[in-house]
Automatic annotation (TrEMBL):
It comes from the Eukaryota. Residues 392-472 form the FBD domain. This is FBD domain-containing protein. Keywords: Signal. The keyword Signal applies. Gene3D superfamilies: Ribonuclease Inhibitor (3.80.10.10). SMART domains: FBD. InterPro entries: FBD (IPR006566), FBL13/AtMIF1-like (IPR050232), LRR_At1g61320_AtMIF1 (IPR055357), LRR_dom_sf (IPR032675). Residues 1-28 form the signal peptide.
Length: 472
């Protein structure tokens, strides 16, 4: 007769603790059902990775239920701290809105994370998910002051390598004590560009810098003298002047989301991936040349994500049809609604990326910006079918096309995908992901069936005999 073994129970406790600590905190707690030893010995409580996240508990929009869920969350924190005072913590995250209402517990929680001085990754997020953003760019910073202040004892924990502070005020000069920092993220707070450059200068190991909805930048000018910065994220921050300048010789990843600026990306030959989102921009006029010049600076890219605004504006820059110098992009992601104002930008990118191997199309909401003017006239209805041109990437390199959020309601989606099937000579795989929230709409209107529209694509003549189309 076969004997059932609990293989996990055969592992030593130190090894189990290492395994548990590699798991997300909520998953580590759930592991108590996996093994008798884990449950009986409470090994999951020895995890060195602690994450107290209010959103794990508070899920209801009903105010009374929401209050009860928040109380349960606070009770859970209290119980955990009181029963695990000897825990050695390496990674700690606290996500809590309205911390001033429970300031004593918040202080106690942070002290719990730092009391042994071994924490290497510290994240304190006091932002409110319900906060309203001003023009989708920056918070109402005149009214939304940081919700909490970093306790003084935290500055003495010199071994912190990852520091993430959201709506958490800090003393700039004391922050410079963290010489071991490798990753820094600030959000929903006032930050000076002087601090950013001083951190880059003093923290000689700093590789990643992220700024989310921060303000009080006169202009954005980052200079990495230590040449260690590899990742830079600037997400909907507020600048007084329209200048975005970066000098970072070893930068590899750049994400920018916000208004158009005068971009000056100097000495960044190593950048291989960029995510550019200008969806918060107010108008169209005059930005084509700025955007074109930015893309000339980012000639080394291999992975690129662009928004609808980018597609509408890029053909109005230095060249109408393509970049003067070819991109090195291998994977291109376009966020589009497939409206007529985006067509020329899509073709512009196909022409400019002759070595493109993978194209991801994220279908979603877009809009037409004021004063938008097409670079030249064309017929939107026949754009993908008349005078068909096969661009270099479709002849020699484009092997994968992935579509996310397919609804099938817009014939423009069908026409464009049919174009890739009909012209992609080396295309091997096309994956069409149906929009998950579309089922209810389809049930009310039987004519709206994305599966039926997607299956039409299966009958389109294929340029590649190796092409496999998957609908899911």
């Amino acid at each position: 007769m076969a004997v059932s073994h609990d293989m996990l129970s055969l592992l030593s406790d130190p090894l189990l603790v290492i395994i548990i600590s590699l798991l997300p905190f909520n998953e580590a707690v759930r592991t108590s059902v996996f093994s008798k030893s884990w449950c009986n010995n409470k090994l999951f409580k020895l995890t060195t990775n602690i994450e107290f996240n209010e959103l794990f508990f508070v899920k209801s929009s009903n105010p009374s239920i929401k209050d009860l869920q928040r109380k349960a969350f606070l009770d859970f924190i209290t119980f955990w701290i009181d029963n695990n005072k000897e825990t050695i913590i390496e990674k700690f995250s606290l996500k809590l809105s309205m911390p001033k209402n429970v300031s004593e517990l918040t202080e106690k929680c942070i002290a719990f994370a730092t009391h042994r001085g071994g924490v290497k990754q510290l994240e304190l997020d006091f932002s409110d998910p319900n906060w309203v953003e001003y023009n989708n760019v920056a918070p109402y910073h005149k009214f939304d002051e940081p919700m909490f202040e970093l306790p003084e004892h935290v500055y003495e924990v010199r071994g912190i390598q990852t520091l993430k502070l959201y709506s958490c005020r800090f003393v700039e000069k004391d922050l410079l004590k963290f010489h071991a920092l490798k990753e820094v993220s600030f959000g929903w707070i006032e930050v000076s560009i002087f601090l950013i450059n001083t951190l880059l200068s003093n923290c000689k190991l700093l590789e990643s810098l992220s700024l989310k909805r921060c303000w009080n930048f006169s202009e954005f000018y980052v200079r990495d003298k230590n040449q260690k910065l590899k990742k830079l994220v600037v997400d909907k921050c507020s600048f007084q002047y329209e200048l975005f300048r970066v000098v970072a010789p070893n930068l590899k990843f750049l994400k920018y989301s916000g208004m158009m600026n005068y971009f000056d990306i100097q000495m960044c030959p190593q950048v291989v991936e960029a995510d550019l989102d200008f969806s918060t921009e107010f108008g169209f006029g005059g930005n084509g040349y700025r955007l074109y010049n930015l893309m000339e600076d980012l000639y080394s890219l291999k992975v690129l994500t662009v928004c609808s605004y980018f597609l509408q504006v890029i053909p109005t820059g230095g060249e109408l049809l393509r970049m003067e110098r070819n991109f090195n992009v291998r994977h291109l992601t376009i966020k589009t609604e497939m409206n007529k104002n985006e067509y020329k930008g899509i073709v512009f990118m196909l022409r400019s990326c002759p070595m493109l191997e993978r194209l991801t199309i994220e279908l979603g909401c877009a809009r037409i910006w004021p004063n938008h003017v097409q670079p030249f006239a064309f017929s939107p209805k026949n754009f993908w079918t008349e005078n068909v041109r096969i661009y270099e990437c479709l002849k020699s390199s484009l092997e994968v096309v992935e579509v996310k959020g397919f609804k099938g309601f817009d014939k423009n989606e069908i026409r464009m995908l049919a174009y890739f099937i009909h012209c992609g000579k080396v295309l091997k795989k096309m994956t069409i992901n149906i929009e998950k929230n579309i089922t209810l709409v389809c049930n009310k209107n039987s004519d709206l069936n994305p599966h039926r529209f997607a299956e039409f694509l299966l009958r389109v003549p294929r340029a590649s005999s190796d092409l496999e189309i998957t609908i899911c």
